[in-house]
Amino acid sequence: MIYNEKIAFETAAHLLQINAIKLEPKNPFTWASGWKSPIYCDNRLALSFPEVRTYLTNAIAQQVTVIYGTDVTIAGVATGAIGIGALVAQKLNLSFVYVRPEPKKHGRQNQIEGVVQDGQAVVVIEDLISTGMSSLNAVTAIKAAGIEVLGMIALFSYGFEIAESNFKDAAVELYTLSDYNHLIKHATATETIKKEQKETLVNWRKSPSTWKP
Question: Is residue 212 part of a domain?
Answer without folding.
Answer: no
